[in-house]
């Protein structure tokens, strides 16, 4: 009887050890799921996604893997993620997301990944690997960015009423402007100084091109050429966030976009005012 009792106690202890091991493994998996949700939200927010899209993606990922106690609070430059109740281990993490430019290819990649997660294609570890791959997605080559800036400037010039010569001048100005952005603005200048300098550079170049005959409407050329500096995505997302009730995040994004608008206008106005004062506005 003693041998039988010892054997039963040993089986009970082994069962308890297995249960503890399974609980620990489940806790680790839930933490990995929450880390992946935080990483996915950070990628979206950093690259220009709306607040509701970030919250929805985090909630869907957690729900699919069985984390029901997830609570996410998202601002324009930060994510607060918590989880935990009587049945789930506690988790809390805060991550600061600096306001930066948009990378819609990364946003699209995370959106596609969230759809595939809901279809049951990935384990949490595979999701982590996919998110790391998305974060390492390379940017477009500098030559492609320069060409896109030039073509965009020329097309906007045409849309605002510029003629063929004006569009050609805006195309050249757009190329030079984005070279300035890549080589000087982005790595060395603050947002305020960089946008003032960009607006001033565009205005000077358009004036010079008009003087040599490569352009007829300087106004159309300037308007078209400054468009690569205009934060259209940030402004649109700010309006959408406010419409969705995210007043703090929307206001921050709108304020950031308006600051850029004012800086660009200040650069353009500074050059035009200086030229008008020196020449009496003959070209204008």
TrEMBL record:
Transmembrane segments: 168-185, 192-214, 257-278
GO CC terms in record: plasma membrane
Subcellular location per the Swiss-Prot or TrEMBL entry: Cell membrane
GO MF entries: transmembrane transporter activity
Bilayer topology: Multi-pass membrane protein
GO biological process, alphabetically ordered: succinate transport
InterPro entries named in the record: ThrE-like_N, ThrE_Dicarb/AminoAcid_Exp
Pfam families, per database record: ThrE
Ranges of residues in domain Threonine/serine exporter-like N-terminal: 36-274
Species in which this protein is naturally found: Candidatus Eisenbergiella merdavium
Name of the protein in question: Threonine/serine exporter family protein
Keywords attached to this entry: Cell membrane, Membrane, Transmembrane, Transmembrane helix
Lineage: Bacteria, Bacillati, Bacillota, Clostridia, Lachnospirales
Lineage top rank: taxon: Bacteria
Family: Belongs to the ThrE exporter (TC 2.A.79) family.
Cell membrane keyword on record: yes
Annotated spans, Disordered: 1-27
